Amino acid sequence: MSEPSLTQVAQAIDHTLLKPEATHADVEALVAEAVELGTYSVCVSPSMLPVTVPEGSDLKVAVVCGFPSGKHTSAVKAAEAAESVAHGADEIDMVIDIGAAKEGRFDAVEADIAAVRAAAPAPTVLKVIIESAALTDEEIVGACRAAAAAGADFVKTSTGFHPSGGATEHAVRLMAQTVPDLQVKASGGVRTLEQARTMLAAGATRLGVSGSRALLGSGDQPASGGY
Fold it and tell me: Where is the active site (predicted)?
């Protein structure tokens, strides 16, 4: 199988800006850059909504939920997701309660995800951030199965904010194998074209990237223009 082209990599990217100090002007610049680079979406904090997408563009808007700790109650996460959808979000990237997964309480993880799914039903895309670097393989499997049972569309490796690290090829491959009916988003530390292609080869279908221009220009071909 041939490796994905720059255009194909770009089309898998959620162009991300989640810094606490981000301004609306920063988000406007993010959108303009995403359109220029041809990324799939922009991913922003809920307070940045609504996001204006240029007319004629098919750029999607993803918004985080329960971010970055996941320690919000399910009711708060559900309300946050519903408000984000009402303000134009196409996709919701929610964080599970990592501690519940560490304790093996996967029924609680499933219920948490199901609450957000109910608040943001299809066609809204629901991605579930499991913070894979903080979990054992067994915990990754349990969290992924909970996401599938709750009706999620994606499992996602990382917030990019956890000290344990971000996406790894091993975690992406394990996640893809565990829930083959769901898609996988690799995020956290995907900074080079080589890393992006490695994640896609391991089974990721989406990439969370803040430095998209640098990533797309990091290969041996010129780009068209740490999260």
Answer: 93 (proton donor/acceptor), 156 (schiff-base intermediate with acetaldehyde), 185 (proton donor/acceptor)
